[in-house]
Each structure stands twice: as structure tokens, then as C-alpha cells.
Amino acid sequence: GAVVSQHPSWVICKSGTSVKIECRSLDFQATTMFWYRQFPKQSLMLMATSNEGSKATYEQGVEKDKFLINHASLTLSTLTVTSAHPEDSSFYICSGRAGGQETQYFGPGTRLLVL
Amino acid sequence: GENVEQHPSTLSVQEGDSAVIKCTYSDSASNYFPWYKQELGKGPQLIIDIRSNVGEKKDQRIAVTLNKTAKHFSLHITETQPEDSAVYFCAASGLSGGYNKLIFGAGTRLAVHP
User: Fold this and answer.
1) Which of A42, A104, A109 has its CB closest to that of B102?
2) What CA–CA distance (Å, rounded) separates A5 from A10?
3) Across the strands, what pairs with A114?
4) How many CA atoms are closer than 13 Å to the CA of A106, on its beta-carbon side?
5) Mean pLDDT across chain B, nearest whole number?
6) What is the DSSP letter of B80?
7) Helix, strand, coil shares of chain A as percentages rounded to 5?
8) pLDDT digits (tens, 9 = 90+) for B78-111
9) Shortest CB distance from B42 goes to which of A49, A57, A109?
10) What is the pLDDT of residue B98?
């Protein structure tokens, strides 16, 4: 299957700072990338969908000014959590989907802890 | 919009037994149904998927069945092994806001005991 990487795998930051998470498709071109958030023992919650070169589409209830998404190339998308607060602590997972395909391939996730 | 329900939430089996996880969906327009396995602290891994023009698909010990009329699909794992222990998520494709996206079930925590 296709491979998606995320960096960093875990990050600890102070409240009020910003954190950037990178998502890369290593062996395919991800026309569309998705960002999810997962709390312990819960399902994946879609935060936003981004198409290469376009603005991201955010799900209801997700603040676009707080979770900045950039999808500048077919292999890279970034999620920046701005002015992070302890309630933003979670497991963030990205996925990539090639053009014309339905299958989403997920990255390994990034665990964020905001102190 | 699409809604996916998944049962059971937890499943405990003995090694060698079969495990079955069931999902129902609400949007009859959904046409793609993947299953993901998520191990602790890792991202979900696609294990099998099925499209609406197929009723059943098998890959070694894993099989998925789809009943479009009843709008439900199931994951079958035979000859379970301890390494099958994980959380399994079903999903259905759905169109929302002009984008095709996956709607996930709540997950099933499978424990396979030696």
C-alpha cells in the first residue's frame, strides 16, 4: 500500500505557542489530504479536507484560524495549531488520497501535548 | 449526511476462533466501504475494502460482505491470532460539502486471547 509519513511523531509545547505538523505522501501524489483528530478510545474525527493548491474545507465546529492547513504540493500538507491550549492535546492523524481514487492512506499520527 | 454505526464496541475471542464486526450505514449513495485496523499509538492501516458493485471480498483470513439493500457490511476474521488484537474501524464514503469523504464507525476493540 501507499505510504504516508508524519513529523513529528510527538510534540510537547507550552500553552500559547504554535505547533506545525507535517504530512507527506512518500510514494504517491496525494491530490487530497485529510486531517483528523482522535481522542483516547474514540473514533477519528475529520477536521478538514484539503486539495492541492486550494484552501482547505473545514468541518463544522473546527476553527480555521486556529488550525491552519496548507497543501502546497502533491506530497506535502501541514497543519499548524496556533496558540495551542491544553484542550488541543490530542492525536492528530493525516491521510492522503490520490486523484480519482477512493482509498485513503493514513500517516502514523502525531501526539500533541500542550502544557 | 452519512451515519455509520458499528457493533460490537468490544469483542473478546480465543485464539483460533472467528471474529465478526458489523456496520450499518444510512446513505444509500455510499459506494465504498473500507476497514481499518489501528494498533495502540499508531495510525489506521487499511486491511480490506469493498465497493458497492461487489457483495463479498476475501483476502486470506479476512473477508468483508456487503448487503446494499439492508445497508450493512461486515468484517470477518477467521483463525484469529493474538496479533489481530487492535481497534477496527469501518467506514463508508459520503459526499458532503462537495467533497467525498469517509464517515467512520465508533470502532471495535478486538482482544484475541492465547
Assistant:
1) A104
2) 13
3) A13
4) 26
5) 94
6) -
7) 5, 55, 45
8) 999 999 999 999 999 976 666 689 999 999 999 9
9) A109
10) 62
For residue B65, the distance in angstroms to the closest alpha carbon of chain A comes to 18
**Beta-carbon separation of B34 and A104 below 8 A:** yes
Phi, psi of A88 (to 5 degrees): -85, -10
DSSP code for A8: -
Structure letter (DSSP) for residue B70: T
Residues 85-114 of B with CB under 8 A from A: 89, 93, 97-102, 104-107
Say whether A49 and B32 touch across the interface (CB within 8 A): no
Residues of chain B with C-beta less than 8 angstroms from the C-beta of A43: 89, 104-107
Cell numbers given for A53: 493548491
Contact assessment for residue A66 and residue A74, using Cβ atoms and an 8 Å cutoff:
no
The C-alpha atoms of residue B23 and residue B21 are separated, in whole angstroms, by 7
CB contact under 8 A, B41 and A42: no
- Give the C-alpha distances (Å, rounded to integers) separating B1 from A11, A40, B114: 34, 25, 41
AA letter at B66: L
